[in-house]
Amino acid sequence: MTMSNTPMAANPLTRAVLEIDEYASGLGWDQPARLFALVDTARLRDQEPALADQLGLQEAPEAAGLTPIEQDEIPAGKALDEFLGTIAWPDAVVGCALTVERLMLPPSAEASVPEDLDGARLTKWVASHPDRQEVRMTVAVLRDGSRDSALRLREKDTPTEVLTGPELVPGLAEALSATFVD
Questions:
Q1: Distance CA 98, CA 77 (A)
Q2: Residue 3 pLDDT > 50, yes or no?
Q3: Is the full-model pTM beyond 0.70?
Q4: 110: buried, middle or exposed (CB in 10 Å: 19+, 13-18, 0-12)?
Q5: Which residues of 67-101 are buried (b: 16+ CB within 10 A; e: fewer)?
């Protein structure tokens, strides 16, 4: 999936994160989590020319870097951390990415979180908080430990309002990195 609004000056991992964010944005909100394998585009062209042609990569610039390939749907009803614990990537996969929607609170709301809430009750409390915001997080990691992420708020749903950075969602990045540990 090659997207038109992705800045070409960005490093390959940032480009892949922004391509996935743009793809997810085109699907709209209230979507399930989506998992992507990241493969080296040049290697894909050499080893799988028919697949590269099907993905439209034969015309892509040589410096395209990483190609995101969406994986099968994440099983409904299975906790994300449990699901990620079942993944083992083949050697051809140099990284992976996940896009997921969540509710978040601003840092100013953290002090008001009741201490006695379990997971379900905390989720309900956050969902009813007046300062909650819906966010789509796209997080990607490489086997070498590199990571990047993009955050898109539903209320500011434009490509120019997407935040990027390697440490925006550290817990999810750690969980994705663990899928490469033997």
A1: 17
A2: no
A3: yes
A4: exposed
A5: bbbebeebeeeeeeeebbeebeeeeebbbbbbbbb
